[in-house]
Every structure is written in structure tokens, then in C-alpha cells.
Amino acid sequence: MISGMTGFGACDLTFGKIKGNVEIKSVNHRYLEASYYLPPGFSSYEDKIQKLMARQIKRGRVTISVRITDKPQMTISLNRVAVKRYADFARALSKELHLKNDLSSAQLLKMPGVVESKETFVQADELWPPLQKALEHALSSVAAMRKKEGRFLATDIHTQLRRMKARIKQIKTRARHLLKDKKTKTTGDEFLSYQKNNDIHEEMSRLSHHIEEVRALLKTSDGAGKKLDFIAQEMQRETNTIGSKVQDKEISAAVIALKAKVEKIREQANNIE
What we know:
Blueprint: E1 7-15, E2 18-27, E3 32-37, H1 46-56, E4 60-70, E5 74-78, H2 80-97, H3 105-109, E6 115-119, H4 124-185, H5 188-197, H6 201-217, H7 224-245, H8 249-269
Parallel strand pairs: 3-4
Antiparallel strand pairs: 1-2, 2-4, 5-6
């Protein structure tokens, strides 16, 4: 079954005290084009993410966003060796000079080398396994939405095809009537000339064949959008030829209606993967 190109998927990301989220959006595009919004240090994973995406998405403009929303801000450690040495110096100085030892814990914490703080950085290598799972979950949601859109598009195109078949039947009936009427009003040579110049059997046959091709294409999922666009162009060409060959008000009206249906199919082809 065909798929559309509009989709959205999201998944939370958790690794220890690190939390984040993944969001993936896709919209219509002629080719597969991806944009990445990743945390610092994660750009090396674009190729891996591209491969994950390509498994489920073949066409469309895709935006992939990874955000770290919560992480330990910093780690603080106490250098107990330095604290002991400062305290020993203070006691020795107090005893030697007969001074009051008023060194407080608050003052100790301000001494150089007593407290060490280090900002926590998210390590991309450690985060890849849970990130991969989150990406796969979000991509599955995108694919499911695109398939749902595909079902809607297929229904609409089938409707257009049924209406086209009705117009083709109308044109065939009118063309037979015109041919029969012409035969009774013209000479043999004139009739043969008219029959030759107004013969649309080949165009009608190809148009009917293209309709069956589209119906078969709607059951597939491999590059259906581009193929459908090509077939719609061929449908439009056959329809134009029919209109140019037979100069009749009723057939001209049916041809205009046919062209409108083909144009709607071609518009929908731009929404199909």
C-alpha cells in the first residue's frame, strides 16, 4: 500500500540521570532530504541516523531533532587531604604563636584546592544505544502516520479513476454515435477520411491501460509517487490527443472533465512517497 509523506513521531529519551526527547517530522518533497538538530558532540551520528531513517522513509523532507532536557549540572568533590593539611597548619600556627585557632569549616571550603567542581558533559558514545531506540520508536510513529495518509490518498485516487472510466465510456458511446451518423450523411470516401482522422481507439485503449496501471501501483510502496506522476502525464497526453482529434461539444466537455480528474491525480502524486 502506498504511503504519504506527512508524518510526526516523538519519543522520550532516558539514560541514568540524563533525560531528553526525540522529534521527527516529515513533509512533502521530491527527494529524501534530512535536516538534523543535535546536541553538541552528536554530529558524528548523522550517518547512523540517516541509515535508520532510510529503512522506513524513501522520500520527503525530514527534520530530526534531539534535545537533552535534563542532566546533572556538575559534580562537586572535597579534597580531604587538603582540608587536613590546612587544619594541621592552623593548629601548628596557633600553638607556635599562641593564637586562637578560629579556622571554621566555611573558611576551609574557600581555601584553594579544597573544593573541586566539574561540569557534567553528555557523552555521545554512551548515549547512542538509548538514542537509537528512541529514534526507531519515533520513526515507527512517522511511518504509521504516513501509511494512514497513504490510505486516504489511495481512496481519493480510486474515486478519480472511477469517474474517469465513466467519462471514457461516455466518449466511446458518443464517438460511435458520431461515426454512425456520419456514415449515413457522407459518401464512402468522405466517411473513410472522417473515420481515419477521428479514430481515437488507440488513445482510449492506452488511457484505459494507464488507469489499470495506477490501480496496480496503489497497491505497492516502492517509489509510487514518482511513477504515478509519470503515468498521470501520459494520461494527460492521451486526453489532449482525444480532444484534438474529435471536434464535438459533448466529447469536448467529457475531455475537460477527464483532464480535471487527471490533474487531481497528479496533485495527489506529489503527496505520495
